[in-house]
Each structure stands twice: as C-alpha cells, then as structure tokens.
C-alpha cells in the first residue's frame, strides 16, 4: 500500500512526495528546502492555482476574497488562525478575486468571502459568508 502523499510546496510550487506518517513532522521541500507547511494561508494566483489545487493529495481550502471587502478583511485573521488548526491535514489558501477575475469567474464566485474545498482538482464543498476560526475549522472538517 502506498502511503505517500503529493504535497505542493508553498514557496517554489514543486510537488513533493511525503509519507503520510511524516506530515506532522515538519517536512521540507526537496527542491527549495523550505517548510511545506507554515500554518498560514498560501496566496494563490493564476500561475500557481492549478498546481496547488490539482497536485496536492490533501484537500485545499480556498478563501475567495477581495481587498475592498469589509467582511473579507474581518475574516482574514480567523482564516489564518484556522490554518494553524487545520494544517497539515488540509492546505489553506487565499485567492484575490479582484486580481484574478478570470479564476473567480471560472468558479462562479458571486459573493465574497466564499470558502471552497478542493480535492483532486474538483470542488467538493462551498460556503459563502464570513466565519470565525472555530466555525471555519468545524465546517472544513465536516466536509472531508
């Protein structure tokens, strides 16, 4: 049985094979030698979105947000706190819908903030609206 997981590096986007039993042992990227998990959300762009959403074997929780959105700015610290609680079982990432309008359109984002969980490149759950860290963690764990 293969217990290795593919994990995309948040720094250089290289895909690493990590034994599942070693996820909580602070694995580092084989290419850039930086930590694969930092307990903080990763900034996604059009350039790295596919790599992280399709190549990670762990679920990816994406916060679709915009800098002008008050509820998005209010939820940002809670989302960062949720990263501390959910990694490494899940990668947390943020996508600025103002800067990446084509991606926001592709996923039919109509209100922000919107949280979406991806597994294997497919969206498996979506939740619109701001939440505190406890509710983000509760919702995310209930979906995977």
Provide a brief overview of the structure:
With 144 residues, the protein is α/β, with parallel strands linked by helices. 28% of the residues lie in helices and 26% in strands. The protein has a single domain (38-143), classed as 3-Layer(aba) Sandwich (Glutaredoxin).
Protein described:
The protein is α/β, with parallel strands linked by helices. The protein has helices at 49-55, 70-86, 101-106, 133-143; strands at 4-8, 15-19, 42-44, 60-65, 91-96, 114-119, 122-128. It has a 5-stranded mixed sheet, with helices on both faces. A two-stranded antiparallel ribbon has the order 1-2. It is 28% helix and 26% strand. The chain is built from 4 helices and 7 strands. The two termini are 21 Å apart. The chain has a single domain (38-143), classed as Glutaredoxin, CATH 3.40.30.10. α2 crosses α4.
Question: If you compute it from the alpha carbons, what radius of gyration comes out, rounded to the nearest whole angstrom?
Answer: 14 Å
Span between termini: 21 Å
CATH class designation: Alpha Beta
**Backbone shape:** globular
Number of domains: 1
- What is the CATH superfamily? Glutaredoxin
So how many helices?
A: 4
pLDDT averaged over residues: 96
SSE succession: EEEHEHEHEEH
CATH architecture: 3-Layer(aba) Sandwich
Summarize the main sheet. Answer: 5 strands, mixed
Counting DSSP E segments of at least 2 residues, the number of strands comes to 7
Structural class: alpha/beta
- Strand order of the main beta sheet, please? 3-5-4-6-7
State the helicity in percent bands.
Answer: 25-40%
Instruction: Assign the CATH topology.
Output: Glutaredoxin
Which residues sit in consecutive blocks of at least 5 with pLDDT less than 50? none
Strand proportion, as a percent range, falls in 25-35%
Organism: Ferrigenium kumadai
Family: Belongs to the thioredoxin family.
Domain Thioredoxin: 33-144
Keywords: Disulfide bond, Electron transport, Metal-binding, Redox-active center, Transport
